[in-house]
Design a protein that fits this description.
two-stranded antiparallel ribbon, 182 residues, 4-stranded parallel β-sheet, alpha/beta, globular
């Protein structure tokens, strides 16, 4: 059974923290209107007293080379993102990825203590003892320690710089980890 590769969108695939006026090399700009984005923006505009103002699309930078590179890795790919099913609708097609399984997050969002990412307990539960690698911009040392304590199978937690996105060294590390765990 191949290990899981749990993929966050914002940070690893969409380097949202890059300079807003300078798209990173290799990325293309996409203006998207996912339903959850529209809902959030509509609520915000209503709170600001502008319920009829047009919702601006969300700017997302994606690198079309990432889809084939992810698909070539010896993993079972899974969305581990707040985009949830919208990742299959808006992100996957741009990258040329098939529909992927999605980790659904609990509502309301948990607020763990000690610097632990709110996703970490759900990820370990979802993995159900299976080996996994997780790419996310919110991973900390606290997450590394928590997974070591609460997950018996091998796990690689790789923090991705949200100003850079996935880079060649990240793909190399993901490939090397699978070889080491075989």
């Amino acid at each position: 059974m191949r290990p899981l590769l749990l993929i966050d969108v914002d940070g690893p695939l969409n380097p949202y923290a890059a300079k807003p006026t300078r798209r990173p090399d290799g990325y293309t700009t996409h203006r998207l209107l996912p339903a959850t984005w529209v809902e959030e923006q509509r609520s915000l505009l209503t709170l600001l007293g502008m319920p009829n103002k047009r919702v601006k699309p969300l700017r997302v930078w994606l690198n079309p080379d990432h889809g084939p590179a992810l698909a070539a890795l010896p993993y079972a790919l899974v969305w581990a993102t707040t985009w949830q099913y919208e990742a299959n609708e808006y992100i996957g097609p741009v990258l040329g990825l098939p529909e992927l399984p999605v980790i659904m997050w609990p509502e309301p969002r948990p607020e763990p203590a000690g610097g632990l990412c709110w996703k970490t307990p759900s990820i370990v539960t979802w993995a159900a003892g299976r080996a996994f690698a997780w790419i996310d911009d919110d991973i900390t040392d606290a997450d590394q320690a928590w997974v070591r304590t609460h997950h018996d199978a091998p796990a690689l937690l790789r923090r991705i710089d949200p100003a850079v996105g996935l880079a060649a060294e990240d793909f190399a590390a993901l490939a090397a980890w699978v070889e080491e765990t075989d």
